[in-house]
Amino acid sequence: MPRFASIDNRYATIDIGTNSTKMTAAEVSGGRIEVLSERSEITRLGRGVDATKRFSDDAVDATLRVLRDYVGEAKSLGISHLAACGTSAMRDSLNGDEFRSLAGDILGTSVEIVSGTREAQLTFLGAVSDPSLLRQAHRVLAFDVGGGSTELILGTRVRVERSQSLNIGAVRLTERFLHGDPPTASELTAASEVAEQALAQFESAPVDRIIGIGGTATTVATMIAPRIPTVQGAEIRDRQLDELLAGLSTQTVEERRKTPGLEPARADVIVAGMAIIRNIMTRFGMASFVVSTRGVRYGLLLEMSAERGEIRAAV
Question: How many domains in the chain?
Fold first, then answer.
């Protein structure tokens, strides 16, 4: 891990995803985590990878620019330990090693390509790091609908029972099925059926709570309640999701971009992402899910700090 002019108990983790690149910087002391900065930029590194199996030059350039910006902020915050990982798109891309080399030069550390299983475990570790989301909940299903894949993790507050990374995501389903603007009813049905078939690979089980992690889930929360001070812990009902999905799926991408709470760069893929969430709720027979802003980055953060004895990892 790189060393800057730094404070020893300050950590930063970067998640280079299919759709967005995110950073969390935090100070860990006495078992407590104080977040110093949360950053998220839509970089679309995985645009077109499902079809071409390669990162485009534009996507690589956009992602590397964001990484340079993140490193600059990390230095200004006195970060002493930095870790970075890549997920679905980096697993699929034929020029992923070339990108990792360029990114590693910028970051001063190698970029770990996490397996689907490890991604799911880090996601769950991050989700359960907020005990307020687990009140009266013994068994929890956590999900993260990313751009290229969807992680499902079933477990309790003390251990992961099983996890799986499914090859469905908001960008991947959009590129495969939602070609109309707005998408046709048959396109929406096809995307939903593929999501349902993929989710059937993960054996359902009774759960007390579903936790939604990542950009798709948090974006749903900000659209449903754009004026809430924080989406952490927000509860989204099936009725709310259905109404929002019905409205957005009949709009053009340009019309969606005007939706309060929706980042314009997500407008083209949000419908597919919401369709995946709706199928998850149906699969597990739950009428709501709660939102967590903590995912892979928090899992990495806890893992790093646990290695140095700052805080104990929960999984």
Answer: 2
